[in-house]
Task: structure prediction
Amino acid sequence: MKSINAIIFDLGGVLIDWNPEYVYLEVFNGDRKKMQWFFDKICTSEWNLNQDAGYSLAKATEERIALFPEHEELILMYYGRWEEMLGNSISETVNILEKLVKQNRFKIVALTNWSHETFPIALNRFNFLHWFEGIVVSGEEKTRKPFIDIYNITLNRYNITAEESVFIDDNLHNINTSNSLGINGIHFKTPKLLIEQLKSFNITL
Result:
């Protein structure tokens, strides 16, 4: 195995807690079944991912209301109250990131599925986002994980060799694509496990 000189972090679910439940569980009075139906049928994860790939939030909202006019108020909340869905940083992982940055041994960048319209909110809220050498935001690139293009954009923009890099993501589909390109994928589950997973690549804190 080649020595690792670059580490690529996903953001949501790894370093930042984002969850629409923070808004909708209250809206549905704690009824998880009704809330899940709304996520499965109306404001679906696939629909949200389209905005992560650069589609206009306003257009997406308008089109969804046209399809489901009886749910207009609930649909408007999705991006209207998006900032309330943005939780805290995942402090244990941020601590790992900080230690890696201070070692000054690795090129450290981020690759995230995130709307270019909402990402500035995160940049303002989380100071650690400014520690990265760079961040590839899917909404700015008009493509997203797990499509191959965005991985190649990341590698080429920051002069990273796939086999000499590690990619950390909480979504297994995204990891599978990275592995297919020769990038060493780490499927993130917990910060504690991540420390052990990094050790397998001779990366210690």
User: Anything to note?
Assistant: The chain has a mean pLDDT of 97. The chain has twelve helices and seven strands.
